[in-house]
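Input record (one chain):
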Amino acid sequence: KIPVLGIEPAKNVAEAAIKKEIPTIVKFFGKQTSVELYDKNKQADLLICNNIIAQVPNLNDFVAGLKTLLKPSGVITIEFHYLAKLIENSQFDTISHERFSYFSFLLIEKVLASHGLTIYDVEQLSTHGGSLRIYARHTENLSMPVTIRPKQMRESEEANVFTRIEKYLSFAKKVKKTKRNILHFLINVKCRNESIVGYGAHAEAHTLLNYCGIDSDFLDYTVDRNPAKQGKFLAGIHLPIFHPDKICETEPDYIMILPWNIKEEIMNQMSCVGKWGGRFIVPIPRVTIYSADGTEISGETQNQEENA
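The corresponding structure, as predicted from the sequence alone:
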């Protein structure tokens, strides 16, 4: 019985929330929207912003809106894909046109501080290959003391030179090396006349496959559980997309898991590959082979395959 309100610019997404009896306003969120709600006495005790701030074109307008809409004693939680994990694990496939910003802790802290908001706690999450969830309040609200974790995050990023441009320039070299390693492995597999299919037809899959030039020379087809994608083709590389049942019909030697951040879930769903000795390939952050039961194949076996 807690009153809630959703703010969502995409009409179809808003309609899905409304069907679940969640009141939702179909608008972009920013200073203007927050002022309109403020004038209607719609300030919030808790503002939840999950995986949205990276997609905001006018960052300061968005944060100004949060400041306006937050009650004096209120809390803001913001979740976003963590830049440190993106760079550390070569997650280049997560970079897309819909994301305007990629945040370190140091950056998000400075942005919020410029609007009179203080981060009093932070935690690392496993979602999206590594995310941060920050907890913020009005700077003048001292009822929630700052924990040790923001200081630890700040010191960690400074120690890992996230304050220097060289950190970001080195990312391109790392991505190129990741691409070469993926192609090296796939070429060796195909030279052994073994078959490979892809699992996943999401945006990240398009980025990875097109950048690496992985098409029908390497993958026989792709599959996806989303019915809206089945019967269509991956853009650029033109690989057909089927239902995952296709894998059990054709019994490929390898299944390349493109949504690597949910690899455990996919391995559980596709445990049937063990019937014919199939294995999984996870390309990010490094090419890793897994048996049908989800066990990582490491040591001599994997080295032989990677260096064949």
